[in-house]
Amino acid sequence: MKMKAMRANVYFGFVLALLLAVSGCGPTSIIYATKDSSHTNEMKRLFVAEDLGTNHLGEYHQSYRRNFTQRLGECGVAVEFFSLAKPDPLALDDSRARAQQREEGAAIGKFGPDAVMQVSEVFLKTDGPLRRPVVVEYGVRLLDASNAKPFWQAEMTLGLNMTDFGDPGVVLADDLVTKWKKDGVLKSCPVGSH
Amino acid sequence: MLCLAACSPPSTEIASNRDSNYSREPKRLAVVENVRDPLVLQSKSFQDAFQQKIKNCGIVGGYVVRPVEEFDAARPPHDDVRQDIDAKTNDFVRSFNPDTVLTITEAGFRRKAEMANGHVAFSSYEKIEYNLALTDTQTRKVVWKSHIVLNPGVGTEDVPGTQLATDIVARLTKDGIFRSCPAGR
After folding, report:
1. Residues of chain A found within 8 Å of residue B73, distances taken between Cβ atoms
2. CATH classification number, A2-183, choose in 3.10.20, 2.60.40, 3.40.50, 3.40.1130
3. N or C: which end of chain B has fewer CB within 10 A?
């Protein structure tokens, strides 16, 4: 875990150096991903379960969703979003959490996806000199809906500053879709096709 | 002496909620620490202080650290190490045979980025958040929950763990869960 923390420091330093030192550069992301090479099913209907906690994307959340839907639509993939509410840490009974699970299950059943994307805001947060978060880390997993088995998993770091030069929501969506193309997740939509 | 100028002591903000119907008192407590990075909770100082505090209340403690799964690019996505970790945790809890289980979960933290000598530098942790839940093993019900924000302070490596342990026990005492603790502890 120490190595992990060291690596985290290194790449956070790298991201911030990119974000702060390069003038004219917009928001940036870094994605570390792993894929199950034996997974061959084509993804055509994607259900996105968002567990974004504090949701540092804030005003850029809608542009992320819009761009993600558009980019995947170009690849023939239909998208449905579902937001998981932040649980009350003091609630003694889990009825609300169970109700939310039922809602999510019903939404999945209604949409009929072939893949489910779980995206969560990992709790690592970094504040800049102005006390605003400048780097947020996301955990992203793609599960095959037929057997709930993960076939792609990533840790994604997104810079939220330099917003005068770009929209971090668009960057998040663009970079994720591009990575899927490179990784062969979107088989019929390779890099350069759209 | 240097520390007098550069150190700041750790502090906590605690919110809690207890089940008013819970009337038993923990005597054999399993503490499950869900940790992501080597932060305060893993430090020996936390367990040592917690053990000492609950011993004074007549409670026997058993501790297990359950690392939260971290991303590993070298591991295929379906290689689920979570099951092994959960199995080990459950084995420990079963063998300890507690009357109550306290789970302590790191829920978030905050670090500050600053420019120093032309480079980006990260401060030590400014704030670490924990969610706690106490479960009565007889009824399998959660009887107490808490949310704690720990400011680890500066230049006080072992002190935050001690502070966290002290404040958790004090809160459980104040909330009437630990009823046999000496006054003022």
Report:
1. 32-34, 155
2. 3.40.50
3. N
Contact B120 A17 (CB under 8 A): yes
ipTM of the predicted structure? 0.81
Report whether B116 contacts B124 (CB < 8 A).
Answer: no
- Tell me which chain A residues have a C-beta less than 8 angstroms from the C-beta of B15: 89-90
The whole-angstrom separation of Cα A132 and Cα A122 is 17
Q: Which of A47, A44, A50 is nearest to A64 (CA)?
A: A50
Q: What are chain B's domains?
A: 24-68+79-174 (3.40.50)
Residue ranges per structural domain of chain A: 2-183
**Predicted confidence pLDDT, tens digits, chain A (194 residues):** 344 444 444 444 444 444 443 334 667 788 989 999 888 888 999 999 998 876 777 778 899 999 999 999 999 999 999 998 878 889 998 888 889 999 999 999 999 999 999 998 775 556 555 555 567 778 899 999 999 889 999 988 887 766 666 788 898 899 999 999 999 999 888 777 66
